[in-house]
Design brief:
single chain, elongated, binds zinc ion
């Protein structure tokens, strides 16, 4: 069974089997894979996903706003109406795949926190 843990994680699937759900809520990691029984409770991505989401969403929104200002010079309220919701949507769309990706990276690199054979 060869599952790419990164693709599985980014898709919100268990990095071990690529089948079971990784998340039990929007960002809450399931305690255990429902498909293969893999212990996901030790997986902890910490602040990792937030860093990437801030940098990527910040880059996209800042340069989009800058280019829009240069090209069209819209009033400031229009900037706010466009870019505040865009920032929110972009961050919410990115944070889950990146959290899955971080957990998959822990799994693939056998990070101590993500190992299932550690003594309790
Ligand atoms: Zn699994």
């Amino acid at each position: 069974m060869s599952v790419n843990p990164f693709l599985a994680g980014a898709a919100g699937r268990c990095p071990n089997c690529g089948d079971g759900a990784l998340f039990a809520g929007f960002l809450r990691v399931a305690p255990r894979c429902e498909s293969c029984g893999f212990d996901l409770s030790k997986a902890d991505s910490g602040d990792g996903p937030a860093v990437f989401v801030i940098m990527i969403a910040g880059f996209i929104v800042c340069f989009s706003a800058l280019l829009t200002e240069i090209a069209f010079r819209p009033p400031i309220w229009l900037h706010l109406v466009i870019w505040l919701p865009a920032t929110l949507i972009l961050c919410l769309a990115l944070v889950r795949p990146f959290k899955g990706l971080m957990i998959a990276a822990q799994f693939a690199n056998r990070a101590a926190e993500a190992r299932s054979d550690d003594p309790p």
